[in-house]
Amino acid sequence: MISGAQTDLQGGIFFMVDGYDRRDMSSYVNTMFGFFWTSSIGFASLYGSLPMYFRYVTFCKEETVSTFRIFSWISLVVVTAVWNCTWALHSAFDNLQRHDELAELLDHDFWSLPDGELPFFSGVSLTNLGGLMFALSCTISFSVSTSLGIYLVMKIRAKLEEVSKSALSDKTKRLQTQMNRMIIFQLFIATVLGQLPVFLVAGQMIFQTHFPPSLTIVVGCMDPLLPVVNPLADIFFVDAYRRQLFALPRQIWSKHSKAINHIPKSTFFFTIFTKWERTDTVGPDNGTFS
């Protein structure tokens, strides 16, 4: 049985395939939920430009980013993502009426369940308004987001060159450079992980071609890596964060040692907590431990 909701594209139609019995009503709910998630996968990439924009405002224009401005830009990103995936769902509901017809396009050997039945699926195609708007909206919104990010990178880089010639301390210059490298890296990762799956779908739909189902599954699973990659960028690009990470084991050891010092040495608990710290060696003569 197929595990969870997965994707495929055949005959210019983007499928969301669910591994449950297609006659089961819960499969409809599971697949539509998965379709909503997949259709809004570009949300992360749209959001990726916001830290770059806020960095541009504070670093280049030397303005304060108000709470209202932050809320306004985040709201714009959310509305754009909802707009995109709404058209995808619109097309998917239209294609439910063509379920049996579209089933013939799927790779039966790859997707069939053990009993020979095809799993439940929904699809988006360019043959209806929803599919056309989905491909068009994703292409426009992601192109604008990427172009904005590139523009902001160039402006910040120009500002960095200006700062490098100023009278700021070397420590301040180094910190500014590290912070900007971190944000640029996060923008790049957000673009790759967030936009690539949607561009892959829209491109295949437009050019009426398809990649192997296994490839679309792998690419579609890249987006959840974003929450892991961004904190890593914070840690490895900024010296202060990196030093704190590497100092963590020493801090833990220090707290452990202080806790041991407060335990009476005659108690059983002191023996437990210090047993693994002692280095027992074998005596040279009688084999006893010293």
TrEMBL record:
<protein>
    <recommendedName>
        <fullName>G_PROTEIN_RECEP_F1_2 domain-containing protein</fullName>
    </recommendedName>
</protein>
<keyword id="KW-0812">Transmembrane</keyword>
<feature type="transmembrane region" description="Helical">
    <location>
        <begin position="129"/>
        <end position="154"/>
    </location>
</feature>
<feature type="transmembrane region" description="Helical">
    <location>
        <begin position="28"/>
        <end position="50"/>
    </location>
</feature>
<dbReference type="InterPro" id="IPR019428">
    <property type="entry name" value="7TM_GPCR_serpentine_rcpt_Str"/>
</dbReference>
<keyword id="KW-0472">Membrane</keyword>
<feature type="transmembrane region" description="Helical">
    <location>
        <begin position="70"/>
        <end position="89"/>
    </location>
</feature>
<keyword id="KW-1133">Transmembrane helix</keyword>
<dbReference type="Pfam" id="PF10326">
    <property type="entry name" value="7TM_GPCR_Str"/>
</dbReference>
<feature type="transmembrane region" description="Helical">
    <location>
        <begin position="183"/>
        <end position="207"/>
    </location>
</feature>
